[in-house]
Amino acid sequence: MSSQDVQLRCQDHPDNILERYCTTCTKSACKDCDHFMTCYTAKHDTKPMINAVDEFDINVTEMIKSIKDVNQELETIFNSIISGDREFKSHVDYINKLIVKHVEGVVKKVKEEGEKLMVDLKSVCTQREEFIKSQVNELESHQMQLQSLKTSVTEMTDKPERKTILAKYKSDVEGVKHNVNQMKDEFCSFANILIPHFSINTELNAYISKGLGEIKSVDYRYSVIEGDKNITVTEGQQFAVKVENVNECDDTCTLSATLITSSRDNIVVDEVEFMGCGKYKIKGRCNEEGAWKMEITNGVSSIKGSPVNITVVPSLVQTIYNIASYKIDNRFKVTDVKLDKNGCMLVSSDCNELLQFNKCGSFVANIKIPNVNVYKIYDVDIGHFVFSDAQNQKVVWCDDTFQVITQFGKGILEYPVGLSVNLTTRSLYVADRDGHCVYQFNIDGGKLICKIGSMDTLNAPHDVILTSEGNLLVPDWKANKVQMFNANGAFIKTFVDGGEEDGKVWKPKCIVMDKDENVIVVSDHRLQLFDKNGIFIKRIDDVNDNIDTPGGITVISYNPRRLAVANYGANNVKIFNY
Predict the structure, then answer these.
(1) Domain edge (last residue) among 251, 285, 313
(2) How far is CA 41 from CA 23, 52, 336, 408, in A?
């Protein structure tokens, strides 16, 4: 007689084999059991006992597998703790060696500060040990509970009448599984906090007044993005440091920031903005030239990448003089400047010759474009260029090798100057100074689409750019305004009004928008920065920088933020930080 035969014998009738199992009554029965016929007569849901046992054993097997899976998750966390602890101790050992070596080079009178550093380091270690200990205790508790459940469930094999108890055990296992998943998420988020960081103070006076350095915990959940760890700005320029959180679902903003000046004064930064998806933006300004730092903390802990190094530099970087000495055509006088696909500056002069300079201001080459007198340049995103030819009253589209592809506006344009292209709508916009309007052409067939503006709204438009909303900004040279039109050509508002004081424009000739949607407008003798709503931010140039009836402008870099101005009156190119 097999063990299975013994296990399937009826307890009330040992000579009989259990034949049916009633899922309604949750009872097993042999042919002589009273409820064998009762369940059949009542049309209960019954099944062969062997099938019920097989189904129940499958559930037991699945439960055991679930327990093993949860236990494996526990093992993963244990291994992570061991690996992290080994790395942590190695890091602590490294910090200890740094501290010892640093202290050895300092005079006796500051050794007390070195001992204080050791105490602070031990405090960080103690905090982390307490965190790990609490995690381990909880993990061991769950492990013991799982072992007990596994033993109990294993003993239930082939006993379907204990289905209710099995369901309770299943609920218990699910509860443990839920707790372990929570612990796993919590451990991934918090296990690497309180990592010690040693900031070495290399100045002797600072040793004496502030100690050898500082031991602090670094919150590795937050990190300054790579491109913002070192920033170059000008005096008074607003900048933004971006921070990421590894836990992207975090919708709170608990960061704080402090600017530390070159004279070691501290300025608290209030503009900490949560952008969503674990991203933050911290805005600040530095009001004097020199080396600054921004310390970013979460509670008492610094974040990874803090402090951010901020270099505050003068506005005017350099001037490219002697432009005329590089010319072939003796009429050369700068009218515009733009970047080519290689990052070099192209300088035009209302003739068929372009000069090419690198960003350091060194001359690279002369470029001849037959039958085109280039007044203004527009660099299309696909690497092509559009040139306005005011003398010949046309606009020319060239590829990246300066070969002519097509021409626009012959017989329509009177004095074309500034240009802009919208590749999405396949539109070319041309500011016509003497036509008192902006013309819109289709770039595929050259067909005129519409005329934007009139003498009532535009007197002498000299440039045109498109905003991210598709509106047009047009500097009106004679009306002393920057005007805004919508995509259909309807006048919206005066974006910047006329005047000779800061925040106003006087004879504006060129305009550009950077990737942050700041708008730079060059008037006859002034270079100014506005936000996307036309709110004045600052004057970029100084009165002594000699901006003189500029012809064109372009942004040449974003870190640092830098632009080049074609300074027509002085026949040079000036490069500014802004």
Answers:
(1) 313
(2) 15, 20, 99, 94
